[in-house]
Amino acid sequence: MKLGFFPYEPLxxxxxxxxxxxxxxxxxxxxxxxxxxxxxxxxxxxxxHFVDLDIRQFLEDTDQDYLQLCADxxxxxxxxxxxxxxxxxxxxxxxxxxxxxxVVEFDxxxxxxxxxxxxxxxxxxxxxxxxxxxxxxxxxxxxTATLLTTNAGLLCLLYxxxxxxxxxxxxxxxxxxxxxxxxxSQIETPxxxxxxxxxxxxxxxxxxxxxxLSTFLFLSPLSSYYDSLEERLSYHSGTDDPAILEEVxxxxxxxxxxxxxxxxxxxxESISGRGSLLVRQLRQVEEFxxxxxxxxxxxDYYQCATPAVARLLFALRLRDARNTGSxxxxxxxxxxxxxxxxxxxISYASDHSGDGYLLFRQGNVIAMAGCFQNLxxxxxxxxxxxxxxxxxxxxxx
Amino acid sequence: MARKxxxxxxxxxxxxxxxxxxxxHGYGIMQYVAELTDGRVSIGAGTLYxxxxxxxxxxxxxxxxxxxxxxxxxxxxxxxxxxEQEYDRLRRQVSDGAALLDRKEPKA
Lengths: 397, 108
Fold this sequence. Notes:
The complex is a heterodimer of chains A (397) and B (108).
Chain A: E1 2-5, H1 13-25, E2 28-34, E3 38-43, E4 49-53, H2 64-72, E5 75-81, E6 84-89, H3 102-113, H4 117-140, H5 146-149, H6 151-184, H7 192-219, H8 228-233, H9 242-248, E7 265-275, E8 279-290, E9 293-304, H10 307-324, E10 333-335, E11 343-348, E12 355-362, E13 365-372, H11 383-392
Helix pairs in contact in A: 4-6, 6-7
Chain B: H1 11-19, E1 24-25, H2 26-36, H3 45-57, E2 61-67, E3 70-75, H4 77-101
Antiparallel strand pairs in B: 1-3, 2-3
């Protein structure tokens, strides 16, 4: 029993035929194709195969009369796969080929695959819609950074890249192949690139399934991992337990104690995290009150796999922050230069009462950190605040 | 290239229509044609299936029965007329050929 890779699409069914002929020459007969691409062969005496286009496309619609006719003629129907009918000769028989009239076969092939304008425009329109979707969606919602910070997002990016590549390659390849067929007035056997292209198509379908699955999981509570710490601290009212506060201080986040904010009472503490292959993210929110006024201290912390990823994520995070004003109260971000930081932006409060939020990158680490809500925001550019950031956030990398 | 109308039949089309002067099912047609032509003309199942679908669509043949998973067809009057026209055309071709090729003297 041997296995082989069988990625062929119906357009390239002559390539599938050539592949099975090659296997037949080695004394191998097709037994079954698993998972749409893993062909299982078994030893046979003088095996023969025939690959035919299935004009009905699906097995349940394949006319049984046709399969009966092929069976009568000595062809055993192995499987219907992606619009192709796979046959092998009944052992001991040497049936005539299923297609014996090149003109009739070419007519049918040409009717199915002849170039039509919509076949060219449709994939291009799909790419354009994808581009439009990402442009509009990412400028409206806080989402583009998520493409890097979750594995689901990474899969989306990979799927989009493969799809773009596939659409362009398919258009060029199929137009070239169909031109050859038209000029020869017969169905030519495609070259080796056809198998590679068909394999890419299979990969794209697999990616689509994985992307859908991971997107579903991403939207579910299973998506983000929660630190054990978070379970204890999340919305933990009146958190003054020294052990818990010490544990919080082990994370690269802002804390009122670390910033020497005049003592207030912490009403809730929440740290959650998630990560992808490229980025680990922590989000912390500490709510506290001073003299009856509520404040929120928040940190969005990203540790990236490489500085290049960090630069890309920083650009996306800045774009998201400017587009949505998410987390902060303002979408007004200005670049400033602070020694010890590769990149740094400040968000001003809408009433210009102070500089409340910093978005910075140093090496592989990006963080958006600050204090906001209700009253005058905290100035994060004071020497004390910057020192705290360097100690607590940047030293984590 | 695709033909729009069956003005000229291919050899396989001709023999399929010829075999359907009697009611037959698909495999019966394949066997009959092979027997009639002494194996010179073979019609594959896929080719035959496509031809039967096309002939039926153009009203040249009609489905008469379905027994044991096999469909039986026979010629319609239109199909008989098409067959006769093709036979006549072939006969004239043979006649024209014979007029020239059967002579002993050199051809013009």
